[in-house]
Amino acid sequence: MKEKFEGIVRELSVSPSRHNWERFRMELRSSSARYYRIIFGEGKIARQQDLKSSYAELYDEKESPLGKVPIFIEEGEGISGATEYLRGLLNINK
Amino acid sequence: MESRIVVLGNKDHGKSTLIGSLLMETGAVTAQRVDDARKTSESLGRKFEPGYILDSFEEERKNEMTIDTTRAYLTYKGSRIEFIDVPGHEELIKNMMSGASYADSALLIVSAREIEGFTEQSRRHLFIASMLGIRKLVVAINKMDAVGYSDRIFENTKREIEEYIMKVGISFREIFFVPVSAYNAENLCRPSGNMRWYNGTVLVELLSWKSVDNGDAQKEGVATLRGFLDREKGIVMGRVVAGKIMEGEELSLMPQGSVMRITELFVGEQKKESALKGENIAFVPEERISSEVRGSVISSQGAGIESSVALKARIFIVSDISGDVSIKMNGIASECAAIKVIETTDIMTGKRTGKARIIPMQNTAYAEIETVRPLVYAQFRRIPELGRFMIYSNGSFSGIGLVE
Amino acid sequence: MANEELKALVEGSVYIMREAKMNARKVAALWSMGKDSTAMLALARKAFMKKVPFPVIHIDNGIDFPETYAFREELAESWELDLIVAKSKIKPEISGYSCCGSNKTEALKEVMKEYGFDALIVSIRRDEHGIRAKERYTSPRDKDFNWNYKNQQAEMWDNYSSNPDGEGHIRVHPLLDWRETDIWRYTKEERIPINPLYLSRNGNRYRSLGCVHCTSPVRSSAGNIDEIIKELEDTTEEERAGRDQDKEKEYVMEKLRALGYM
Known about the structure:
The complex is a heterotrimer. Chain A is an alpha+beta fold. Chain A has helices spanning 2-14, 18-30, 48-52, and strands at residues 33-39, 55-60, 65-70, 72-75, 78-81, 90-91. The longest helix of chain A is centred in the N-terminal third of the chain and has 13 residues, at 2-14. In chain C, helix 1 packs across helix 2. The longest helix of chain C is centred in the first third of the chain and has 21 residues, at 3-23. The chains are: A alpha+beta, B alpha+beta, C alpha/beta.
């Protein structure tokens, strides 16, 4: 189970497609991920590129990091935000 | 409810300075805001101006633009006070009226300096405040520091204002006068050592007193109907504007002229046996109402609510009335057939003229208004919601009226 | 604040929403899942027998907080909301007042047009920002959403504006008189569900919620609504201090432009 989740987390960072995000969503429920924190690449999102270089760090119950996922969906020519797929996680507020 | 105070007065008589000082004195603004105001004053090469606390936009400050409507809040001894600062200039009189119509008190600021004094604009503002039904008036005679804290000048200005009020025939339930220096924060929150001759109360204290409510003027229940909440089920919605409305009591429905009873009454979404003034209700009548209900009124027996196509009112005109005239009362527009002027009054001098054809702009008249369809109304002083209206001519706002 | 003051605010808001429903052809409300717009929907439930009788629109730029999305789903289900999610695209470059590269106004314009809404209920409060001091309970916007503040219709007593010009719409502001603490008191009194981000975790909480990017938490130990109210009574910070300040400036500038100041 753990490996499956790690696998999809890795795949997402290579290819944040809608399909992969849906798979992530399925795996998230049974994973140990509990918290998230969003880190902005350039400190800001002023351009599309900045969203691409931002990511969410995932943590387990003990607040130890589990890996990073992007926060966007690549779809054809455009991109859109993907934080909806992190539903169920709580902001670590740190 | 908190006190809502409209701030009136001529430009340059110190409105912003006074409010800014009050906010600082009562600790209602953050140190950051005060510091910002200090920096702005410095960058403009002026001495510290408390008025800049109010003007929150750099752009507005830099260009010294008159801000249209500004709000400021403070809490004094647990009472919430909201200040509504309205535009001073003439062309924005309708904005001034819009802001002032939600106030229960007015703070008029008049400069004690001879060259400033009780100006035409101050008079007009005062007149409009009375037309809007504002009950409490506090007059701050400002810039006392510039006139040597003279009690004689304070008394003279006070008398001039009192005489004006009597001459034009307006009234307030309560009137207070207080001599202040807005800039030095004298008599705002702390008594001034420079005006020991004044033994009244400091300004903020006067402002924090709740104005006398005229809620008991009408004891019988009256509610205006807003429409059907659910037309299929026949559920009607309305708002109680006076007294108490009870489930099961015999109510008259106007202008339909019928009698009805409520079998199920709700305040908001909760089932209740009775509803009080101010509450939004929904109800199921014993017998389904088939006519349109928006604008109708239900009232307890003896409430004295009538419906007619003619009413007498004191009106105030901001622009010429011509073409298609309508009035809007309690959110509902009614076409007018005629406005017959009985007498006009010049609001500067109090001079009355009978049977005038045209009402001079920014003046007042006692008039008879005829509507095309019957209207349910009451005297303004009895039920404000059913006794105050806006006048439109050819679709634009032209004035207001109070039913007498 | 006394209960009667809160009661007066509630009755005022209920009245405004009922009038909006009666005056407009087709009404919608904006819902950001924040405390204000959620309290506004609770008031709509009070006004209309526990059922919000109009669609609620979420302008979604795709990077709201995960908690916000979860909260949206839960409440939309339990309150049986007619939810419209209007997705706003993230563009390569930002222009004008935009959120995280997406133009929320564009998305709103599209959804208003698609459904033909002529009234939009919005949860702004007058004490949020100085620029809002000029707002009225009802405020007409033209087809480009411009606010002609210099020639606003007179709005007095309980006579609200109802007819937008041509393709425009009316903005309705039932919470204009409310303050931040009033919202919390009402939220507590009516047990309105809240987004968990408002409560302290690891010594931080969100006081004002935008998307993940333009909002940052404030230091706070408030773990329940009473503690939030207590904290707000003591604070000297502005409510939107946790918002991205550059964006706040941009927002104000944009508003000032609409007001004809620039």
